[in-house]
Amino acid sequence: MFTGIVEELGEVTAVETLDDACRFRLRGPVVTEGAKHGDSIAVNGVCLTVVDHEGDEFTADVMAETLNRSSLGALEAGSRVNLERPMAVGDRLGGHIVQGHVDGTGEILERKPSENWEIVKISLPADLTRYVVEKGSITVDGISLTVVDAGPDHFTVSLIPTTLDLTTLGHKQPGDPVNLEVDVIAKYVERMLGDRAQGATR
To answer: Would the keyword Transferase turn up in this protein's UniProt record (predicted)?
Structure first.
């Protein structure tokens, strides 16, 4: 379980392409401190398992399912990535509940800079539209953000200087893909209401 508060902007140092998977080597001095085999680290919002750890680098295997459902397949050596370790019991929940299970990908459509913040417009897959509401929470590349405006096929977020400086959203441009995870609470509510409705019609 994560909170969507990125701990550091890491870097992909190597990508090994396998038959139906990829093995990434990533550098992140903060998230690798005390890391061990089997630990979880969120990479651009995708929960990955540490395979090996040496110095300030770790490796993680990414299966075809994850590559197909996320933007990790577009990463190459030198790519910057958002990194976050799982929250510990008793930690402050600074963002919102993030599972590290990407629901789909969007695309940066537009950036509108202002003096103290920047508005970013992102495309939204049709099957995720019902989960995204104005002032609700959404995870973009592992970053917990508040939805400013929710349209039929897009949404906007407002980014403060800290987010622009310390995450991938400070560098991504129109056309670049991003990983999206909607608020898991919305999905549970939908399921419970659907089950209740089905029970009432029996």
So the answer is: yes
Residues 163-196 have pLDDT tens digits of 999 999 999 999 999 999 998 888 888 888 876 6
- Which residues does 8 contact at the CB level (< 8 Å), separation at least 6? 28, 29, 30, 31, 83, 166
Tell me the C-alpha distance between 119 and 111, whole Å.
6
CA–CA separation, 194 and 202 (whole Å): 13
Q: Where in 44-166 does DSSP place strands (E)?
A: 46-54, 57-63, 80-84, 104-113, 118-123, 137-140, 143-150, 154-159
What are the CA-CA distances from residue 110 to residues 138, 173, 181 (Å)?
18, 8, 20
Tokens of 17: 């392409």
pTM: 0.90
pLDDT at 201 over 60: no
Q: Which of 3, 97, 92, 86 is nearest to 38 (CA)?
A: 86
